[in-house]
Design goal:
Blueprint (H helix, E strand, L loop, with lengths): L25 H16 L4 E3 L9 E4 L11 E12 L2 E5 L9 E5 L2 E7 L5 E7 H14 L10 H21 L1
Bound molecules: nickel (II) ion.
Length: 172
């Protein structure tokens, strides 16, 4: 078990488009395990590989934050097949500490992904699980939840992001 440093805004790795995982080896399993530990320690309900500096299409989600091992979801090369409905609710991100805002997301999604063993699976998710999955898949394309904000919310986020960027740079 290892905790990985979480990359914070404005780290440019957060804006990169990640490449598909092609090799399902021990290194991938270790990375996925370390990401789960890092997510739980944060604590958070999701973490994508670029948030730990790895530009691969890998993300982990656990709405139980370590309370229920059965809820840990590891998504390799995830792809949304279908989405239905919209719900707007509050979101945050481990790479954007101190910033939360309301973001519209699909109410339900159906997706296809691989597990760390290279086994393909399909999954249907709704509500918070759908939201968390969409948030993490966005990370794999360099998209952050603040990108969805408009108008005054966008202005507010812009101010908070500037402040966060100053803090991140001062700490590095
Ligand atoms: Ni995030």
């Amino acid at each position: 078990m290892a905790l990985l440093p979480i990359r914070l805004y404005p780290d440019p790795v957060l804006r990169e488009k990640c490449s598909p995982v092609e090799t399902f080896d021990e290194e991938l399993r270790k990375l996925a395990g370390d990401m789960v530990d890092t997510m739980h320690a944060a604590p958070g309900i999701g973490l994508a590989a670029p948030q730990v500096g790895i530009t691969k299409r890998l993300a982990v989600v656990d709405l139980s934050v370590g309370e229920d091992p059965e809820q840990i979801l590891t998504l390799v090369n995830p792809k949304i097949l279908d989405r239905d409905g919209t719900e707007t609710d509050v979101e945050g991100c481990l790479s954007l500490p101190g910033i939360t805002d309301k973001v519209p997301r699909p109410l339900q999604v159906r997706l296809r992904a691989f597990d760390v063993a290279g086994e393909e699976f399909e999954l249907e998710a709704d509500d918070w699980l759908a939201r968390a999955i969409c948030h993490e898949i966005d990370h794999l394309d360099g998209v952050l939840f603040v990108d969805y904000l408009r108008g005054l919310r966008k202005e507010r986020a812009r101010r908070l992001l500037k402040k966060l960027a100053r803090q991140t740079e001062a700490a590095s």
